[in-house]
Structure formats: structure tokens, C-alpha cells
Design goal:
Strand content: 15-25%
Number of domains: 2
Helix content: 25-40%
Number of strands: 9
Strand order of the largest sheet: 2-1-6-5-7
Bound molecules: ligand 9D3
Shape: elongated
Distance between the termini: 77 Å
């Protein structure tokens, strides 16, 4: 996979590209990454990349000419690339979008700064992608997230020991809690069952851990999930437990509270 990045801050990517699985993927030629500096395509004396919005309003807009020059250069470097504008207005990035992008030969990311890019540049991208409902200062962190999520799906990128198959979201459950040595840390024990060597009990504990985390943090995932008999049984047990908690009298009910007649 060949990545191109169109940005006014190419140095932001240096550390990201120099560590861990991404660095190894580059060393192993699984990916290439080329950043194109928009400022080099600004031909005026001050190398201007932004301008005031037509119609007025706060903030600045990225000028089309330098961006167009940088995008043309990225397309020359990565001819088989799909061009993606990173934008708060884009379609949401998910694991299935990552899997779709991982099938392509090349990806060119256009990173906006200021309040966004001139719409005529937005229109020349193949699509626009957002990484979520929060406000960034520019598209660069989003480009890193897409490169990261796509790269680990490429054959050989994880070095075999950890396959990208059995990940969270693929089965609508968050991953279970994990522990390693020592058996007691900061006064907290590792759950006994994990030391028991009983594989069936370990599997069941992990399922309970996954279900509890998903219920607490991502109940939306459970809505889309076909539950197994055991998963239903675990959830019912918790329901019954909660039912017991809420069936007693209210502590703030005057008639029931102690010390009154
Ligand atoms: C005040 C209106 N803002 C739109 C939500 C202006 C604006 C804020 C932040 C315009 C651009 C940006 C910079 N953000 C990105 O470039 C960006 C982004 C994001 O902010 N959130 C989630 N995904 C992305 S992808 C690119």
C-alpha cells in the first residue's frame, strides 16, 4: 500500500512513522508513505496557503491553487491512489471502512487546516472521511489514524503472532480484561480463575468480562449482536441481581425510613 499525505505540516508524521508496527511495515516494504508539503506549491512571495472566506465570517480557508498543486504531485507519486479528504463533514471512519481501504493499491490523504478547504478542492477528492464527532485542529491526526488502522490489516504487518481477525467490533463485543505478572499489583489480585489452568472456566470468565464491559461502555454494540445461549444466560443473571436490588423499599421513602412512625 502506498500512502500519500497532502499537508502544510509534514513533520507531524515523522515520529509516528518512526515507531512500532508502522516503522516495521515501512522497513518491510509493506507500505510506503510520502508527504507532500502544500507550502511548496504556494508560488507567491509569502507562500500563502490560506485566505479569507467569500461571504465573510470567522477564520480562514485553505486556498485552492497550492492544494491543487500538492494533490497533483501526490497523484503523480501514487497514480493508483484513491484521494480522500479528511473532513468533519466526511463519512464516519469505522473498522469496516478500514478493511475496505486496505484492499486498495494507494491512498492519498488531503489534510485541511484552518476552517477547512475551498469546496472546489473538496469536490475533486474521491470521498471525504471523518474520524468522529469531535473537533480537531486539522486533518493530520486523522490521516495518522487511517494509516494506522489500514496498515495493521495488510498481510504481514502484524508479523503473524497477532492476527487482525479476532479483534473487537468484529463480533460486537469489547475485549475482555487482561492480566500479566505479578499476581498481586498495587494490592490488587489477578482474578483467581485465570491462575486456575481450567481453560473452560477461563473462557467463560472472559466472556463475562467482555459482556460487562460492552454493557457498561458500548451498549449500542449489544443491540446489533445475535446473542448465544450462554451470553443470554449471563445477562439474565445480572438482570435478576439488579431486579433484587431495586425490588426493596426506597431509602428516601418517608414511611419506610427508620426512626419514623
Ligand atoms: C466551526 C466549524 N468547524 C467544523 C466542525 C470548523 C472546523 C473545525 C475543525 C473545520 C475543520 C477542522 C479541522 N478538522 C479536521 O480537519 C478533521 C476532523 C475533525 O475535526 N473531526 C473529526 N474528523 C476529522 S477529519 C479532519
Amino acid at each position: 500500500m502506498d500512502f500519500g499525505i497532502v499537508t502544510i505540516f509534514p513533520e507531524i508524521f515523522d515520529s509516528f512513522l518512526s515507531h512500532g508496527i508502522i516503522r516495521r511495515a515501512i522497513a518491510d516494504r509493506i507500505i510506503t508513505v510520502r508527504a507532500v508539503n502544500v507550502r511548496e506549491f504556494a508560488k507567491d512571495r509569502h507562500r500563502t496557503t490560506d485566505d479569507r472566506p467569500y461571504g465573510g465570517g470567522a477564520g480562514m480557508v485553505m486556498k485552492p491553487e497550492p492544494l491543487a498543486g500538492a494533490i497533483a504531485e501526490a497523484r503523480r507519486l501514487i497514480p493508483a491512489g484513491r484521494t480522500i479528504l479528511l473532513s468533519p463533514q466526511g463519512r464516519p471512519f469505522t473498522q469496516s471502512v478500514a478493511a475496505e481501504l486496505a484492499t486498495l493499491e494507494g491512498l492519498i490523504f488531503i489534510c485541511g487546516r484552518y476552517e477547512g478547504v475551498d469546496e472546489r478542492i473538496a469536490a475533486c477528492a474521491d470521498e471525504a472521511i471523518s474520524i468522529g464527532d469531535y473537533v480537531l485542529t486539522g486533518g493530520e491526526p486523522a490521516a495518522m489514524i487511517l494509516i494506522d488502522a489500514v496498515t495493521r490489516l495488510l498481510p504481514g504487518a502484524l508479523g503473524g503472532e497477532d492476527s487482525a481477525e479476532k479483534d473487537s467490533f468484529s463480533d460486537h463485543l469489547l475485549e475482555y480484561a487482561q492480566y500479566t505478572r505479578p499476581p498481586v499489583f498495587a494490592g490488587e489480585d489477578v482474578p483467581e480463575v485465570l491462575l486456575s489452568g481450567n481453560h473452560a472456566l477461563v473462557e467463560d470468565w472472559r466472556l463475562q468480562s467482555s459482556l460487562a464491559r460492552t454493557l457498561a461502555n458500548r451498549p449500542d454494540l449489544l443491540k446489533d449482536k445475535r446473542l448465544t445461549r450462554r451470553e443470554k444466560q449471563i445477562l439474565k443473571q445480572w438482570c435478576d441481581y439488579i431486579e433484587g436490588l431495586v425490588s426493596g423499599p426506597d431509602s428516601d421513602c418517608a414511611a419506610a425510613s427508620s426512626g419514623e412512625k
